[in-house]
Every structure is written in structure tokens, then in C-alpha cells.
Design a protein that fits this description.
With 272 residues, this protein is an all-alpha fold. The protein is built from 14 helices and no strands. The chain binds iron/sulfur cluster (3 copies).
Length: 272
């Protein structure tokens, strides 16, 4: 049973959030929403422990499609960063605000960038592309994410300051167009840099939240130095260029780890 402790804890955390929000906000949607996400993630972790090779992709599709199609397109919640600013400005405690608080601001203190590995609907598509491990060295272009972050904030601030009407409708279309732009830029960047995760490394504004919080993450890939023979296989398969053989929190690209476990699966000495 000990090896199943992680999925059980994750499931219990999500069930606690689901029941607390359901009862405090008197809205059964929260019970359904967080139970669904918790069960999907716990199932993925269970399959991962069982060494099922498509475990991560299954969770990515279960959670990513649910958020994009059901929450985004059907329920009309803007779950992108613009939606977060929007609901924050209006002071409404809606799905996008809760989603950001749980998955991208406070959650990473526990599970790091697990969101990026197991749930993001942008990466869900990008991970189908051919460059699963980068074929070119990482570029120093991470500053672009701060520009996109600022642009998202300026866009929503401008909507509020100009007092335009029908802002809900604008936010819905911002979600549709924003996602189309993310996918287009992500796919072009993947082929240009020969790296499926180029969008995550250079362009994604959400990483501005994710990186500092995941620095303190409880869940981390650690290396048992007594077993490691420095063969370098782990670094070759890492999609995010992390130096996972260094256990320090300041390790190279440490805040980029998406907990995909590719390094763990490929270590011949079971050192990770
Ligand atoms: S960095 Fe951005 S696009 Fe990439 S997986 Fe994370 S949230 Fe998604
Ligand atoms: S390969 Fe290992 S270090 Fe790299 S992102 Fe995946 S889990 Fe993290
Ligand atoms: S694959 Fe394993 S043994 Fe090889 S360098 Fe990485 S941790 Fe060490």
C-alpha cells in the first residue's frame, strides 16, 4: 500500500477542496469539478506507479479536454491568464480564480509544475508533436514570458478602464482567440526550435507564477548519488533540460521540471 500513498493523498486533497467549496459556496458544481480532477490525477499516478507508459498522457487528456471543452467552451469560463485577471478584478471567486490558486499559485508548493506535465490543455496538444526531447540547446529567451504576462494584464486592465460593455462576451472570445494563438505559436515554436516544449520555456505567461512557487515544491525528482554512474541518459530524455542529478533547489532549470518521470523511467540504475 505504501507505494500508493501519493495518489491517495492527492485524491484526499482534491476531495477536501471539493466538499469544502461545495458546502461553503452552496454550489454542487465544485463537488463535481474537483472530484473529477482529483480522480483523474489519482488515476494517472496509480497508472504511473503501475508503470503504464501512457499514464501521463491519459491524465493530460482527461483534465485538459475537460477544462478546455467543458469549462471553457461550454460553461464559458475563461480559464486562461486573462480570465484570472478578469475574475480577480471583479472580485468574483469563480472557477478561473480557484483554478489558478489551486493549480498554479499555491498547489506548486506541493506538486511543483505537475500542472504542466499532467493537466495543461496547451501542452496536451504540443506533446503530440515530434520533438519530445529537444534537438537543440536551450535558448536564452525566457524573458519573452514576462512580456506576454504583462500584455495579458494590460489587455484586461484596458477593458476595465475603457468601461466597454459586454465584457463577459469579450472574455469568452478572448479565451477562444487566445487559445488559437497559443496553439499556433506553440506549434510554430516547436518546429522552429525542434522542441515540443519551446512554448513552455519561452512564451507561456503562466510560468511567471509557476516557476517561483515550484522552487519550494515538496514533490521533487531526487538523485541517489550512491547509485548514479553519470551515464547522462536522464538528461538526454528530459523535455525541460533539467539537471536532475543535482539535488540542490538551485539546480539548472530546476523550476522547469514538469514531473513527467521520463528521467526516472530511463535511468538504468534506478537512481532517480
Ligand atoms: S508552461 Fe504554460 S503552456 Fe506549458 S504546460 Fe505549463 S502552463 Fe501549459
Ligand atoms: S525528465 Fe525528469 S527532470 Fe525532466 S521534466 Fe521530466 S521529471 Fe523533470
Ligand atoms: S540516468 Fe541514472 S545513472 Fe545515469 S546519470 Fe542519470 S541518474 Fe545517473
Amino acid at each position: 500500500m505504501k507505494k500508493y500513498i501519493a495518489p491517495i493523498i492527492i485524491l484526499l486533497i482534491f476531495l477536501t477542496v471539493a466538499i469544502t467549496l461545495w458546502l461553503t459556496k452552496n454550489n454542487i458544481f465544485y463537488l463535481f469539478n474537483f472530484t473529477y480532477i482529483g480522480v483523474s490525477i489519482a488515476l494517472g499516478l496509480f497508472l504511473l506507479i503501475k508503470k503504464y507508459k501512457h499514464a501521463r498522457r491519459i491524465v493530460q487528456l482527461l483534465v485538459g479536454l475537460y477544462m478546455l471543452v467543458y469549462l471553457g467552451f461550454i460553461r464559458g469560463e475563461n480559464m486562461q491568464i486573462e480570465g484570472f485577471w478578469y475574475y480577480l478584478f471583479t472580485g468574483v471567486f469563480e472557477a478561473a480564480t480557484i483554478h489558478y490558486a489551486v493549480a498554479k499559485i499555491f498547489g506548486p508548493l506541493i506538486f511543483g509544475r505537475g500542472w504542466c506535465g499532467y493537466a495543461c490543455w496547451t501542452a496536451m496538444v504540443l506533446d503530440f508533436l515530434p520533438y519530445k526531447t529537444p534537438e537543440k540547446p536551450r535558448k536564452k529567451l525566457g524573458w519573452i514570458r514576462y512580456v506576454t504576462f504583462a500584455l495579458s494584464l494590460i489587455f484586461v486592465s484596458a477593458l476595465f478602464l475603457s468601461k466597454v460593455g459586454n465584457i463577459e462576451k469579450i472574455m469568452f472570445w478572448a479565451f477562444v482567440i487566445g487559445n488559437a494563438v497559443y496553439y499556433a505559436v506553440g506549434i510554430i515554436a516547436a518546429f522552429a526550435f525542434k522542441d515540443n516544449r519551446a512554448f513552455c520555456k519561452y512564451f507561456c505567461p503562466v510560468a511567471v507564477f509557476l516557476k517561483p512557487m515550484s522552487y519550494f515544491s515538496l514533490m521533487r525528482i531526487k538523485c541517489d548519488k550512491s547509485k548514479c554512474v553519470n551515464c547522462g541518459k536522464c538528461k538526454k530524455v528530459c523535455p525541460m533540460d533539467v539537471d536532475m542529478t543535482d539535488n540542490s533547489r538551485k539546480r539548472k532549470n530546476g523550476t522547469e521540471c514538469i514531473l513527467c518521470h521520463e528521467c526516472v523511467k530511463n535511468c538504468p540504475k534506478k537512481a532517480l
